[in-house]
Amino acid sequence: MKPSNIFAYAELSKFSEGLDVDDHRSALLKLHAYFHVIPAKMFSEQLAVEWEEIYSNVTRHGPLLDEEGRIIVNSVKNTISQMQKNECFDLVKKIRQLKEKVAAEF
Question: Could you tell me the pTM of the whole model?
Answer without folding.
Answer: 0.90
